[in-house]
Amino acid sequence: MTRVVPDLGAVRRRFSSLQGEFTFLDAPGGSQVPDEVGDAMARCLREASANIGAPYETSRRVGAILDGAEQRSARFLGCEPHEIVFGTNMTSLNFALSRTAGRGFQAGDEILVSSLDHDGGVAPWLELAHDRDLVVRHVELNDDTTLDFDDLRAKLSDRTRVVAFAWASNAIGTITDARRVCALAHSVGALAWIDAVHYAAHEPIDVRAVDADVLLCSPYKFCGPHLGLAYGKAEVIERWRPYKARPAATTPLGRRFETGTMPYELLAGLNTTFDYLDDIGGFEVIVPHERALGERFLAALPDAARVYGLQTMEGRVPTFLVNLDGVPAPQVAGRLADRGMGVWAHDSWYSLNLYERFGYGSDGSVRIGFIHYNTADEVDRLAGELTQIAASA
What we know:
Elements: H1 8-12, E1 23-24, H2 35-47, H3 57-77, E2 84-87, H4 90-101, E3 110-114, H5 123-132, E4 135-139, H6 149-155, E5 160-166, H7 178-187, E6 191-195, H8 207-210, E7 214-217, E8 228-232, H9 234-237, H10 264-279, H11 283-300, E9 305-307, E10 319-324, H12 329-338, E11 341-342, E12 344-346, H13 352-358, E13 365-369, H14 376-392
Parallel strand pairs: 1-11, 3-4, 3-5, 5-6, 6-7
Antiparallel strand pairs: 2-8, 7-8, 9-10, 10-13, 12-13
Helix pairs in contact: 2-10, 3-10, 4-5, 11-14
């Protein structure tokens, strides 16, 4: 089958931030945003500054924005609109929903988390465990950084209440077989709880197909505003008692877990984000293009480059953690910035167990990530600069 190639010129013209000479290779830390998304947010503030429930036009407009955001989000995740919950960001939403789920847990109950996880998917359970005398256990990894399913099976028990895991690592890009984890969690009556923040920008999501109970993601990773977005399986969350102001609406179902007034301008931007992704061809176009960029990058790296985790594009998204022999990571990031290329250097990348496993050296590591608006020329230029930096060492 012929691969569908995106019209990158047309795509990039929709971003003012991509019209200069600087190259953004830091998508794992947050993507660039199309102008139309910002325009929608500004238009909402100009024309729909109100709250829902009032009998006048601006209130009806924000009501339509909220309805549209639930419908589009449901289509993006493969669920029903009443199973959508919005929050300030993924971490705040995860703290709120984990506390809500935890009302029914007992002392000694266990939570399993993955050693690939960002701490936004771990810390809420650690804090809940501290408050409720629960036990949090980490599922180990295989040598290639994929999840160790034998260890997962060994740690499941009748005390397991939640299996929480990252669908894709924000640090090294490794993908976890979500359907398999969910099935194992359900085999002992536990909830399957997915951090899809890093996965959602690169691969299509169908929460029904993997049988998730809760899934969270962040639109700012896929060209949208800073916002938290969650799915909660209706038959699960309808049993939960929400933390909420008592007069607030309890229908549709997902809204009972939203506290206070919604950020309607961000939801207006989210609606336009989904429209933008649909307009450029969706994941049918995005996935093969990004995979090709990743393969091109791996093939062009100098011998002095160490890539942590999987060494091919099989089983990963196009996010790479790299060190160059003899060159501290902050120096690599700084020299690339001087040459007009944006990457980050950091120590743990908030994936604390993964950091303990690899160490990444005393100076941390460089994270490089591609997204659908990146080009082959940008990848080639980056690889060339890394080769020069390595040679200068």
